[in-house]
Design brief:
Blueprint (H helix, E strand, L loop, with lengths): L3 E6 L3 H10 L5 E8 L2 H11 L3 E4 L3 H8 L3 E4 L8 H8 L3 E4 L7 H13 L4 E3 L7 H10 L4 E9 L11 H4 L2 H17 L2 E9 L19 E8 L4 E7 L11 E6 L2 E6 L3 E6 L3 E5 L5 H14 L9 H20 L3 E2 L3
Parallel strand pairs: 1-2, 1-4, 2-3, 4-5, 5-6, 7-10
Antiparallel strand pairs: 7-11, 8-9, 8-15, 9-10, 11-12, 12-13, 13-14
Length: about 325
């Protein structure tokens, strides 16, 4: 095909992040925009220079009227299901934002339908496309990694659905999943997870901006990997001021240390020298470009996270919730 007809389901912040990149692709035509807020869809339609507007309840009608080749699905974690199943029935390929759901059983059903119908998928684990990742892979090659530390600690995002586990999955599942996924991508599959978590620093009582807040304020997760490495990952949403932590990952080998400063730089130190490499390229551009190319050609080899692979990262992070709830180590077989 010369041009990919693309429709968008969910026209909020992350959809606009994709749009700012895809709008430069001459081989993409936006044909439809679906959102709970019509004004958001209209703004994106106007910026695209064309396409039809649909309310969220009319997503199926958008599929049938605009006949897209592909979708950007950028909805909150609890809104998945019909969006994907109806697209799969019509053979529409899809790029889905992470996390792919906060309902693991639903995600498993969607994955089975995707596989049965040969749907091309990509999931928005943008950090896999960082130019820093190739340096990290090279620095880690041949190294025996014993310990890994990591953190994603900050404040509470402003969107209403984020502050409830039933609609977001919690901070690990919705936000820190990026680092958990990065560990899978660089180190390999985990075999066990134990997470301890706490509440009480965030005070939602009497604060309308935090109505319904029930996620954990902070947690620490210990992960054992198949290759023997052990990671300790901190997650928190209670920090409002102060220095905070360096968010990212640190890998400790016998003769070298690799620091990944989240989406900023890496610092590699061995016996001879310290090397710094700064992020230069926009990771969103290859993420979107490789998906569009796969839809055009059928070649999915450059997509770094398919739906099936992203399902493993969802299982990984959902296991932390299971561990919090039970107080037990959760075994994994990914």
């Amino acid at each position: 095909m010369d041009k990919v007809k693309l429709a968008v389901v969910g026209c909020g912040g992350i959809a606009n992040w994709h749009f700012d990149r895809v709008k430069h692709f001459p081989d993409v035509e936006y044909v439809g925009f679906c959102d709970t807020l019509t004004e958001r869809a209209e703004r994106m339609r106007d910026a695209a220079g064309g396409g039809k507007i649909y309310r969220d309840v009319d997503v199926v009608r958008m599929y049938d009227e605009t006949k897209p080749d592909a979708l950007h699905i950028c909805v909150p974690p609890a809104q998945h299901g019909l969006i994907e199943f109806e697209a799969i029935k019509r053979g529409i390929h899809m790029l889905v934002q992470k996390p792919i759901s906060c309902d693991l059983n639903l995600a498993i059903q969607i994955d089975r339908a995707i596989t049965a119908n040969n749907i091309i998928t990509s999931v928005g684990f943008q950090d896999r496309y960082l130019d820093l990742v190739e340096y990290m892979k090279e620095f880690l090659k041949g190294k025996e990694i014993g310990l890994i530390s990591g953190a994603w600690v900050g404040g509470i995002p402003g969107v209403e659905w984020w502050r409830r586990r039933s609609t977001s999955g919690g901070q690990i599942v919705e936000q820190n999943i990026h680092l958990f996924d990065m560990l899978r991508y660089l180190i390999g599959e985990p075999v066990s997870v134990y997470t301890a978590a706490g509440k009480g620093i965030v005070k939602p009582e009497g604060n309308p901006a935090l109505e319904g807040y029930d996620v954990e304020d902070y947690s620490a997760t210990v992960v054992r990997f198949k290759n023997g490495a052990i990671a300790n990952i901190f997650t928190g949403d209670y920090v409002e001021a102060g220095g905070g932590m360096q968010n990212g990952l640190t890998f400790y080998a016998k003769d070298a240390t690799l620091d990944y400063d989240l989406r900023t730089k890496i610092t590699y130190t061995d016996r001879l020298q310290t090397t710094e490499v700064f992020q230069k390229e926009d990771q969103g551009m290859p993420l979107d470009r490789e998906f569009i190319d796969a839809v055009k050609t059928g070649d999915t080899s450059k997509i770094r996270s398919s739906y099936s692979d992203a399902l493993k990262s969802l299982r990984f992070t959902m296991a932390t919730n299971d561990s919090i709830d039970t107080g037990k180590v959760v075994l994994l077989d990914l």
